[in-house]
Structure formats: structure tokens, C-alpha cells
Design a protein that fits this description.
It contains 15 helices and nine strands. It is of the alpha/beta class. The protein has one domain: TIM Barrel. The strands form two sheets. Strands 1-4-5-6-7-8-9 form a seven-stranded parallel sheet. The chain has a two-stranded antiparallel sheet with strand order 2-3. β7, α13 and β8 form a beta-alpha-beta unit. The radius of gyration is 19 Å and the shape is globular.
């Protein structure tokens, strides 16, 4: 059966504009918090295919989104490359052995050696695929990865950062090492996403969460070209699998966007009309409601109607311009989904 979300990603006519939300399987759902408590901690949940499958499907059942997105974390890649990862309550992810030199990079696994270790992710996908197929309810499954630049910043900084000064110091003072890190991560990501597709995902999304940390003139060199390399690799093997690119916070880069992918995710700081003008003839556009509008049903409806008007003669997928926040009322998330369906029924 042709899935509405997959058709929309490929620019085909659909009976309505589909919708999903980044971070839709998460802390705003009491049902998610219950499963996470059972798991003990975040990494345990990522490593447990049965529980990860359950939380992946929760927003489909509860909120009514048109696609499930695999529950996992972008940092499972450097973790399985051999870095020492822990998630600290109230702090977030931390690598206890950040990369400072070529020797540090050389000790890490690469390519299929690392990607083959992510069996729990592939097992999760197979379970979700089985559940979705049994339901026969036209819901798609999105797989994902972090872009090499976003992954590299964590691997170099050792944790989240607001300044990226260690990574950017390397960018300007030792670009060769940074490119070596990016190239090694890219190879792992290629095989990782290939295995996700083989395990049963319908659509790939590549998140570059920290794209805005790079000045526009350097963005292609240190991030975008690696994302395009991943997309090219996947398209050469799976030409019918849609690919979504989501670089957060790069409105100044729109004129430079290129590559063999299907959907461009527009973040909330980029006007949708501008993205449509620059990219709408080449790519389906996804997004881009400001996530905090979900605190108000009125503000949500206002934005959904405005987006529908802007994109009425364009190819579009409704989404937020970044992830849903933990204290958003579930009723408001349901309202967002129903409003997207209401305004776009054809």
C-alpha cells in the first residue's frame, strides 16, 4: 500500500498534507515517561528494542501523526565507534574521552565495524515495522541519524555546548583533523542508514542540529557536503527511499543548497515563504511551526492556517521548526495534528 507520508515526501498528490513532530516520542507524553521509568535510564531505553518500539508507536496511537520516527539517539554512533558515553541526569550526554588528536580518532572503530554493532537499533526497526504492517493503517516509519558535523561537535567538545569553541578552534587551526573526523563519521553513518533501510524504515531524515554554529561561507565545506555524500550513497542503492535534510538555523545558506534528496526541513527561524522562493521548485518543504506555539491552541491554529496559505500551491509536509518541548499539553499536540489535517484536506 502506498503511504500518504511517503507519497508526500516524493512530491505526489495526497488527500491531505501529512504531519509529524520532531521529538514526538518523548517527555510530553505520560505514557513515554512510564516506559522510561521502567527502563531505568535513557540509554537503557535506546538499547531495549521492545520498549523503544513501544515509545516509537505512542505518538501514532495517542496524537495521530502520519509517521512514526524511530526512537533512538544520534549519539549511539560515536558510542559504538568506541567512545565512552554516559547520560547524566540534569546535564545530558557526556563523552569522557573527547577527540583531541589524530591518535584519538585512530583508536575508534569505523565503517561497518561500528555500524554492525548497532543491532539493537535494527531490531527495534524490525519490531516497529511488524507492528505497523499488522495495523495496515498507512503510517510510515522514519529512520534518522545526526549529520557528521553535529556528531563531531559532541565527539570533540565531550558534551553539549553553546559556543562550539573547541570544535571551531579545530576548524580554523587544524581543519585536516576535523575533516578526518567528519570523513570517518560519514562512513559509519552511510552503513548505519543503509542497515536502517534494510531493516524496514520508509524515509530517512538527517538532522544537523548544530548547523547554525558554522558561518555560512564554511557550511558546505564542514557539514553540507558530508550530508550530500550520505544522501548520494543511499540514493545510489535505494532510489525510491525519500531523504529529508534538516539543517537547523541556516537561512543564509538557502541559496547554496544542492544535492540528491527529496525534502528540505525548514526550521522555525527561516520564513517558509523564503524557503519556498529559494527551494520550493526543487524540494518538498517540511515544517516549520515555532514549537512554543503549541502552548496555545489559538497560536497553533493561526500558524497552521498561515503555513497552509503559503504552501497551497507547493509541496509540503507539516512539522514543527524544531522539537516539541516536554511541558506541552498532549491535547495541544493533538490539536496541532488535527488542524493540519483540517486545513489541508483536498
Amino acid at each position: 500500500m502506498s503511504k500518504i507520508f511517503v507519497d508526500a515526501c516524493l512530491g505526489k498528490e495526497t488527500p491531505y498534507t501529512p504531519v509529524w513532530m520532531m521529538r514526538q516520542a518523548g517527555r510530553y507524553l505520560p505514557e513515554y515517561m512510564a516506559v522510561r521509568a521502567e527502563a531505568g535510564n535513557f540509554l537503557n531505553l535506546c538499547h531495549d528494542p521492545k520498549k523503544a518500539c513501544e515509545v516509537t508507536l505512542q505518538p501514532v496511537d495517542i496524537v495521530g501523526v502520519d509517521a512514526a520516527i524511530l526512537f533512538s539517539d544520534i549519539l549511539v554512533i560515536p558510542d559504538e565507534m568506541g567512545m565512552d558515553l554516559e547520560f547524566i541526569k540534569g546535564f545530558g550526554p557526556k563523552f569522557n574521552d573527547p577527540i583531541k588528536s589524530q591518535d584519538d580518532l585512530d583508536r575508534l572503530r569505523g565503517g561497518k565495524d561500528a555500524s554492525d554493532r548497532l543491532t539493537y537499533v535494527y531490531d527495534t526497526i524490525k519490531l516497529i515495522r511488524k507492528e505497523l504492517d499488522q495495523r495496515d493503517d498507512n503510517k510510515a516509519l522514519i529512520g534518522f541519524c545526526g549529520a557528521p558535523w553535529t556528531l563531531a561537535t559532541y565527539m570533540i567538545e565531550g558534551q553539549g555546548t553553546k559556543t562550539y569553541n573547541i570544535s571551531k578552534k579545530m576548524m580554523y587551526s587544524n581543519p585536516e583533523l576535523l575533516h578526518n573526523i567528519l570523513a570517518k563519521v560519514t562512513e559509519v553513518v552511510k552503513y548505519y542508514m543503509e542497515k536502517q533501510i534494510e531493516s524496514g524504515i520508509d524515509v530517512v531524515q538527517i538532522f544537523d542540529s548544530w548547523a547554525s554554529a558554522i558561518e555560512p561561507s564554511k557550511y558546505n565545506e564542514f557539514s553540507w557536503k558530508y550530508m550530500v555524500e550520505i544522501a548520494d550513497y543511499l540514493k545510489s542503492k535505494y532510489p525510491d527511499t525519500p531523504i529529508i535534510m534538516f539543517p537547523k538555523g541556516v537561512p543564509a545558506f538557502l541559496d547554496q543548497v544542492y544535492g540528491n534528496f527529496d525534502v528540505f526541513g525548514v526550521d522555525w527561524s527561516t520564513p517558509m515563504a523564503l524557503a519556498k522562493e529559494k527551494l520550493g521548485d526543487r524540494y518538498v518543504l517540511q515544517g516549520n511551526m515555532e514549537p512554543c506555539r503549541l502552548y496555545s491552541k489559538e497560536a497553533t491554529t493561526e500558524c497552521v492556517e498561515a503555513l497552509a496559505e503559503i504552501m497551497k500551491d507547493g509541496r509540503h509536509i507539516f512539522n514543527l521548526g524544531h522539537g516539541i518541548l516536554p511541558d506541552v499539553p498532549v491535547e495541544n499536540a493533538k490539536h496541532f495534528v488535527s488542524e493540519c489535517h483540517r486545513v489541508s484536506k483536498r
